[in-house]
Specification:
alpha+beta, 3 domains, five-stranded antiparallel sheet, three-stranded antiparallel sheet, 5 helices
Amino acid sequence: MEESDEEGAKRCWIYETIVEAQDHFIDFFMKAREKAFYDAWRSLEQAELSLLRLKQHHPLEEAYCLGLMAKLIPQFQDIFPYAVFFSPGLVIRKRKCSICGRVVSAVQGCGHRKGYIYQGRFCCHIVEDVEPLEISFVKKPAQRFGVPFKVKEDGSAEDHYNYAGVDYVISGLRSPFSDWSYTRTKRRHPHSRYTDVSPNAPCPCGSGSSYEECCLPNKEGVLRPHIDIVFSEQPPASLPRQAYSDDWSPSSAGHAKVLSRQRNVKPRANLDPDM
């Protein structure tokens, strides 16, 4: 490709980035099926970053499943159990342009603009000297890789999260690019699931009131949040019509939560958003 063919080089970068986003998304799906959920989460984040770079130069349309990935990525992120993240505070002392290699700062540029494509290369700033200041816990980080885990006595990390919701949805999908949607709802769980809860203990519904003053008098059970899932394709017959997340994931902590599937015009399921 001739050096002056900027438009041709940009098209090559666009197609390379489309394939990159697809690869990361497929990798997420396969790792989630293998129960490697944190690794899957990282691949999902990479797919999102690829789409963020791409959308500045190419519409996220239905071609190449770009629009579908842009829809599904935040849905998957929402049903993961991660609620808080590490967010580092940094002082950047030196950064360089990825195109020309010159040192840049807030007052000294190089002529290249971040996010633009030059001869098929994406312009960004490469940090070479940084001073860490702090680490904060946040709910909406700039990047989502910093997931906190418990630490075992030997110093190794322990993945203590309940992935029943993610596992349930992944198990119901025929392929990485099978569509699905969800709506948050609430449903009563039978009191038989809470026989270990004292009437004077906090109600399992999370209201803050005691069990006997809140849901215990209601014969239908404890009111719990759910997610109503609609699969665009018929899920495998092995996916149960109803299950509880503590049965689905025996190592999970906390009270039981319902996972259920109903056959309708489109197959549906209900998941607890805490999972």
